[in-house]
Write a structure and sequence with these properties.
This protein has three helices and seven strands, in the order H-E-E-E-E-H-E-H-E-E. By secondary structure, the protein is an alpha/beta fold. The protein has a domain at 47-131: Nucleotidyltransferase, domain 5 (2-Layer Sandwich). Strands 4-3-2-5-6 form a five-stranded mixed β-sheet, covered by helices on one side. It has a two-stranded parallel sheet with strand order 1-7. Strand 5 (96-101), helix 3 (107-118) and strand 6 (124-127) form a beta-alpha-beta unit. The longest helix has 17 residues, at 16-32. It is elongated, with a radius of gyration of 26 Å. The protein starts with 15 loop residues before the first helix and ends with a strand.
Length: 134
């Protein structure tokens, strides 16, 4: 005697719900990747109404509110900054030095950083700012 089974196993898997989940994850990671900070040094950037997107560079100098100078994640002094920059500078390169100075830092320290960079041949500088809300 054979019994008929009403609940048969599915032979086809429906991928529509899986596709929705993957699409939502993709959107989430694309949006959150825009908020990644370039360096690990915490700096409160000054505001600007005409903020532009800064291109990535190997030459990022951060100046904290405690007057500490960082070349990337490495802490340096203003006196040794030129030597550290010359180690990563190549001959065929036209570098752009990005300065991420805290808004409480004196302009004198920023000028010393620019002078140290000019001494080894870097002539392009970008002072990174944060977009002010309207």
């Amino acid at each position: 005697m054979k019994f008929e089974v009403k609940n048969k196993p599915l032979s086809i898997f429906n991928f529509s719900s899986l596709t929705d989940i993957v699409l939502l994850l993709l959107i989430f990671f694309l949006l959150t990747s825009q908020f990644v900070i370039q360096t690990g040094v915490k700096v409160k950037l000054p505001g600007s109404k005409n903020d532009e997107q800064v291109t990535t560079s190997r030459f990022v100098v951060a100046i904290t509110e405690n007057q500490e100078v960082y070349l990337g994640p490495k802490m340096v002094t203003v006196e040794t900054l030129a030597g550290e920059l010359s180690l990563i500078l190549t001959e065929n390169e036209d570098p752009n030095l990005i300065i991420r100075a805290d808004k409480t830092v004196d302009i004198d320290l920023v000028i010393k950083v620019i002078d140290a960079a000019k001494g080894i041949g870097i002539n392009k500088f970008t002072i990174e700012t944060e977009k002010e809300p309207f």
